[in-house]
Design a protein that fits this description.
The protein has 11 helices and 10 strands. With 425 residues, the chain is an alpha+beta fold. It has 3 domains: 20-137, Butyryl-Coa Dehydrogenase, subunit A, domain 1, CATH 1.10.540; 141-248, Butyryl-CoA Dehydrogenase, subunit A, domain 2, CATH 2.40.110.10; 253-404, Butyryl-CoA Dehydrogenase, subunit A, domain 3 (Up-down Bundle). A 4-stranded mixed β-sheet has the order 3-6-7-10.
């Protein structure tokens, strides 16, 4: 079997490739051989300075994927999908594991918003949005966190009040990834403050160009501006943009968070690309491949990434069986966060001091060590953020303890109280 080929096995005989599966895998691999580079290829270093967000590359890739009939695999053809099965999605994920897919700007749009719209959207909402979302013509974000409600999403205070055939939204969201380049967002707002905090929430589809909505990028210590704070001042949203039922937003929010955690911990694409092949090549290029400390770190990283791959495969199999991601998504998300830090430490071990101080020569160019140092220092700075996105490591451990291990919950003196009656700072 050629290098990089993923064998698909039939249920009747695990050692015999299923012809249809093999043909589909070959189609996926042929597409990526034409449009992408392998993750251990030096060219897989990310977008150039002319495309700082990677948006051009992401839209081009996703558009080509849709044209080839390989986007939105599990979504119906009538909504712009490929009309295939979750089994095909699993084959696709495995087949693309060793390719650099330039789709990072679409990770939330496709990993969270797309499945939510597909699962909970009305026919009219799907007809209006799914095809453009699948093609990457429009990009979506999620708006959950607030300055006074970070990990406690259910404690949010952004309000939505019904006014005829429109909802008026007032409030603030923060740490919204990618909002500055997105077209639409899914926002959770409080629609009934007289109910307990988990019961008075609703979810809405919001056009980010709507009057009264302001997006302000937040500058990170790396200089990047990937996060945003969003202000809603009497933002009018059509009543038809309600996703799901009124005051059922918490159930949708939980589903969306599960999709996010699965996307972070078990999804495909750039977010979950294996780092060890690239780092092994880097160690060879920098003459560090014989260093026993480096070799041990690379071996440990390889093992951890393979284990994470099996966790992801188990979760995707559950989704393929028709189950919405559950608390196992927290296991994948926590594993992904820990693994990001392990990859960070391994990279810094390889590049050494160049990861903290890199130079340019007189021509404005960098040598290999400085180039690697600049690239991996950015990864080093951002790796810790994975422990916050989608719920902190501590939140994931609480979910695993309570919902997987059956440990008792922490006491809540305000359980069942109306949100408006709960003291807030």
């Amino acid at each position: 079997m050629p290098a990089g080929t993923v064998a698909a096995m039939s249920d009747d005989n695990p050692s015999t490739p299923d012809a249809d599966d093999a043909a589909f895998i070959a189609r996926v691999e042929a597409f990526h051989a034409e449009h992408c580079v392998r993750i251990d290829d030096p060219a897989a270093s990310g977008p150039g300075s002319e495309d700082p967000e990677g948006l051009l590359a992401a839209r081009s890739y996703q558009g080509a994927l849709a044209h080839a009939g390989l986007a939105g695999l599990t979504h119906p053809v009538e909504y712009g999908g490929a009309g295939l099965t979750a089994h095909h999605q699993e084959l696709f994920t495995r087949a693309t594991a060793n390719w650099h897919r330039p789709d990072a700007p679409l990770s939330i749009s496709h990993g969270m918003c797309l499945p939510m719209l597909g699962q909970f959207g009305t026919h009219e909402q799907k007809a209006a949005h799914l095809a453009d979302l699948i093609r990457g013509t429009t990009i979506w974000c999620q708006m959950f966190s607030e300055p006074g409600a970070g990990s406690d999403v259910a404690g949010l205070s952004t309000r939505a009040v019904l006014d005829g055939d429109e909802w008026i939204i007032d409030g603030q969201k923060v740490w919204t990834s990618g909002a500055h380049y997105c077209d639409y967002g899914l926002v959770v707002a409080r629609t009934d403050p007289t109910l307990p905090k988990h019961q008075g929430l609703s979810m809405f589809i919001v056009d980010l160009s709507t009057a009264g909505l302001e997006i302000r990028p937040l500058v990170q210590m790396s200089g990047a501006r990937g996060f945003n704070e969003i202000f809603f001042e009497e933002v009018r949203v059509p009543a038809a943009n309600l996703l799901g039922e009124v005051n059922q937003g918490w159930n949708l929010a939980v589903s969306m968070l599960m999709y996010e955690r699965v996307s972070i911990g078990a999804g495909g694409g750039a977010l979950n690309a294996k780092r060890h092949p690239e780092l092994i090549q880097l160690a060879r290029d920098l003459g560090r491949s014989d260093d026993p400390v480096v070799r041990q770190a690379l071996a440990a990283l390889h093992i951890s990434e393979e284990i994470k791959g099996f966790i992801g495969q188990r979760i995707r199999s559950a989704v393929a069986a028709g189950r919405v991601p559950g608390p196992e998504g927290s296991i994948a998300k926590l594993t992904g966060a820990l693994l990001a830090r392990q990859a960070r430490d391994t990279a810094m071990t390889i590049v050494g001091t160049a990861g903290q101080a890199f130079e340019r020569n007189a021509a404005g160019e960098s040598d290999l060590r400085s180039t690697a140092g600049r690239k991996w220092s950015g990864f080093c700075i951002s790796a810790a953020g994975i422990s916050l996105a989608g719920g902190t490591d501590e939140v994931q451990r609480n979910i695993i303890g309570e919902r997987v291990l059956g440990l008792p919950k922490e006491p809540d003196p305000f359980k069942g109280a109306a949100w408006q009656d709960v003291p807030r700072s």
